[in-house]
Design goal:
It is a single chain. The chain has 329 residues and is an all-alpha fold. The protein is 78% helix and 1% strand. It has a domain of 195 residues: MetI-like fold (Orthogonal Bundle). A two-stranded antiparallel sheet has the order 1-2.
Length: 329
């Protein structure tokens, strides 16, 4: 327990420079982009005179130098203040807290399903490399991984929502339904079935192929031959020796895919009209709302760091050698 806490403490400290790099890099990238919130506003109202433009730039703080605005933003961020959204005219923290749970429901469910079923199918495929079942699962996973998530989402929506009318076509829950408690939770689950399925199937194929490849490699190692020589059953060898060691790179990939899942949620949320974190980023880009986009990127970076810290903990539990020297120093 103490080793795990020390490991987490070191990871948390090392993440501070990473966040600073993300903030500074994103800020200057947005500075290089053409247009800003004032330009987007003027387009929406059909233009304006020089006096209006100057007033808007002063109101938004765009009349100051880039370094001044960067210092103000970093200072506010140190106080956990994400700033003010120009497009929505409200605090950014409130917007993110309103939209983030929807994306966490979507991402958490999709990631859990993809990992559990992908790993299980990978174990089935890797238990007997080269068998008919292994080849069928490998071909099916490759075909599934090649399918774009937005196309899969549209197909699922057309079949199960439009034609069969089994599930809702869009949204996170029924609007103005007045449902509470368990009834509301079930309503949200019904709305999430299609988007979660579309997002999970793509990453399920990735975990399946990674688990299968890892097991196929481990079957050739000496300790597996030694386990066979001891007379252990094939099921015991597969689960206790081969699958457990092949699971380590799969868990590593789970942490690396956290950022990709955030990016994938943008597409899925647009297809199914889910008011989540991804669509908020899309709206921030459309409105040239740099403070909101900065807040979204910073929160995304924090989420990815937290997920990878949890992955490090799981990794250390599965393999006690991982992080032992670092935590003990």
């Amino acid at each position: 327990m103490n080793r795990a806490l020390r490991l987490i403490g070191r990871r948390a400290i090392s993440s501070i420079p990473v966040l600073l790099i993300v903030v500074i890099g994103t800020f200057f990238l947005l500075e290089l982009a053409s247009g800003d919130a004032v330009d987007a506003y003027l387009v929406s109202i059909g233009g304006g005179d020089a006096a209006l433009i100057e007033h808007l730039r002063q109101s938004y703080g765009l009349d100051q130098s880039a370094l001044t605005r960067l210092w103000i933003y970093v200072s506010s961020l140190a106080r956990l203040d994400l700033g003010w959204s120009v497009a929505f005219n409200r605090p950014i923290a409130g917007l993110i807290l309103e939209r983030l749970p929807n994306t966490l429901y979507l991402m958490g469910s999709a990631t859990a399903l993809a990992f559990v079923f992908g790993t299980a199918l990978g174990i089935l495929a890797g238990a007997r490399p080269g068998s008919l079942g292994d080849r069928l699962l490998s071909i099916g996973s490759l075909a599934l991984y090649a399918v774009p998530s937005f196309w899969l989402g549209l197909v699922l929506s057309v079949v199960f929502a439009v034609q069969l009318r089994w599930l809702p076509t869009s949204g996170i829950e029924t609007i103005a339904s007045g449902k509470q408690g368990l009834e509301r939770a079930l309503d949200i689950i019904r709305h999430l079935v299609l988007p979660v399925s579309a997002l999970a199937m793509i990453y399920l194929a990735l975990f399946l192929r990674l688990m299968r490849a890892g097991m196929a490699e481990i079957w050739r190692l000496d300790f597996v031959r030694a386990a066979r020589a001891k007379g252990l059953t094939r099921a015991r060898i597969v689960l206790r020796h081969v699958a457990r060691n092949a699971l380590l790179p799969v868990i590593t990939m789970l942490g690396l895919q956290a950022a990709s899942m955030l990016g994938g949620s943008v597409v899925i949320e647009s297809v199914f009209a889910i008011p989540g974190f991804g669509r908020l980023a899309q709206e921030a880009v459309s409105a040239r709302d740099a403070p909101l986009l900065m807040g979204i990127i910073v929160v995304s970076a924090v989420l990815v760091i937290v997920v990878n810290m949890l992955i490090d903990l799981v990794y250390a539990v599965l393999d006690p050698r991982v992080g032992a020297s670092e935590a003990a120093s």
